[in-house]
Amino acid sequence: xxxxxxxxxxxxxxxxxxxxxxxxxxxxxxxxxxxxxxxxxxxxxxxxxxxxxxxxxxxxxxxxxxxxxxxxxxxxxxxxxxxxxxxxxxxxxxxxxxxxxxxxxxxxxxxxxxxxxxxxxxxxxxxxxxxxxxxxxxxxxxxxxxxxxxxxxxxxxxxxxxxxxxxxxxxxxxxxxxxxxxxxxxxxxxxxxxxxxxxxxxxxxxxxxxxxxxxxxxxxxxxxxxxxx
Length: 229
What we know:
The protein is mainly α. The protein folds into 2 domains: about 5-110, RNA polymerase sigma factor, region 2, helix turn helix motif (Rna Polymerase Sigma Factor, Chain: A); about 130-205, Winged helix-like DNA-binding domain superfamily/Winged helix DNA-binding domain (Arc Repressor Mutant, subunit A, Orthogonal Bundle), CATH 1.10.10.10. The chain has helices at about 5-10, 15-25, 25-50, 50-70, 80-110, 115-120, 130-145, 150-160, 165-175, 180-205, 215-225. The longest helix has 30 residues, at about 80-110.
């Protein structure tokens, strides 16, 4: 059977049959499962951890646990759903671990805890060109959206949300009652949400994409962890 025919044969298998092949350590079946599910699992993990490297590690560990137990897959749910549950549990466990570690540092009164938390959340390495480009795009979206706010709302929003002035300070600066500051800020936020939601959904889809080289790289790492590289 040629490689193309073998691949087509695998593609035609239902979830239960594909899982049985994976349980028998069929490298092609495992590779196919990872390529089909990498992006969904990455996004699921990212939704919990909000950190690219932590999310990728959670997916790797989730795959290792899943393939170790895949002979127990009963087909009661889709294979992709079964994998997603495993990865989400892994991500949730990691998040709890990170939160416990942060609390320990709090109790110990460690100097520089804010810096520690910042690095924990965002990573200590320099931002990638992709993340820098995304940040520029998001800043541009926000700036354009704020510029389209009605004048009265925009002033309140900038003073409260960007300059971090208190309600009292903002009221004094604009010579309006504090209740008016609160009302205008609420309306400004609603305006921004209405403007930004469609654009942010589009940007988010691109930002949390996990395909191409990322997908292939994750598959290669999982195969190596399973001793099938």
